[in-house]
């Protein structure tokens, strides 16, 4: 099982390629895997920068808590484009979102697939609503729906008023869905239960669930 950290910042719209190129250079010229990092994904959503760091295990267990060897150089290079999001920001650790819920199917019911497809969903969360959101998903995930939809994992995070939902599904499930999952009555019920706590990040541009999906603009995976 991959352990993930999620970093959320502001990002200047349109700077995806610049930021991606910086990470591309250092991911290739250094060895993040020597520090337990096996992958990273960079995504953008309106004025947000979402950085998903993938590790072999929780760094609190492995003791490998450092980032890239060139962390300071990367920070300086992206500083004109990536800035802190939380109002309470004092140091880099304040940009790490807090995980407040996770779910994976047990081995007997886990969907079989050669691939895993990660979708990153963004919204706004009502302050202090994490327990209620976790309860709603916990009740839903306790049933058969997630496995029926090919879900292989779900992780929920919050930072300030930002809600980040990592949804992992089999490649086959994503290919078969074609956007039809949102039409299921049970999905509508979950959305209705979440509505007092979760809202669109940008209501002016939101037309449906697909408008809450962040765009991936850079990915790196360790080869060894």
Automatic annotation (TrEMBL):
It comes from the Bacteria. InterPro entries: Dimeric_a/b-barrel, Polyketide_synth_cyclase, Polyketide_synth_cyclase_sf. This is Polyketide synthesis cyclase. It comes from Micromonospora purpureochromogenes.
């Amino acid at each position: 099982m991959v352990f993930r950290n999620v970093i959320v910042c502001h990002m200047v719209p349109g700077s995806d390629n610049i930021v991606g190129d910086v990470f591309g250079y250092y991911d290739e010229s250094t060895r993040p895997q020597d520090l337990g990092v096996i992958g990273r994904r960079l995504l953008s959503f309106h004025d947000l920068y979402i950085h998903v760091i993938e590790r072999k295990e929780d760094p609190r267990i492995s003791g490998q808590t450092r980032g890239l060897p060139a962390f300071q150089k990367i920070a300086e290079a992206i500083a004109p484009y990536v800035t802190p999001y939380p109002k309470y920001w004092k140091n880099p650790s304040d940009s790490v979102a807090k995980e407040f819920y996770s779910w994976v199917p047990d081995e007997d019911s886990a969907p079989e697939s050669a691939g895993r497809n990660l979708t990153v969903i963004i919204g706004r969360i009502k302050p202090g609503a994490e327990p209620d959101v976790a309860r709603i998903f916990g009740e839903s995930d306790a049933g058969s729906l997630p496995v029926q939809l090919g879900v292989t994992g779900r992780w929920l995070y919050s930072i300030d008023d930002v809600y980040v939902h990592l949804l992992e599904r089999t490649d086959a499930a994503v290919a078969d869905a074609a956007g039809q999952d949102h039409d299921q009555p049970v999905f509508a019920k979950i959305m209705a239960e979440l509505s007092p706590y979760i809202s669109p990040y940008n209501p002016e541009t939101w037309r449906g669930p697909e408008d809450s999906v962040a765009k991936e603009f850079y990915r790196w995976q360790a080869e060894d």
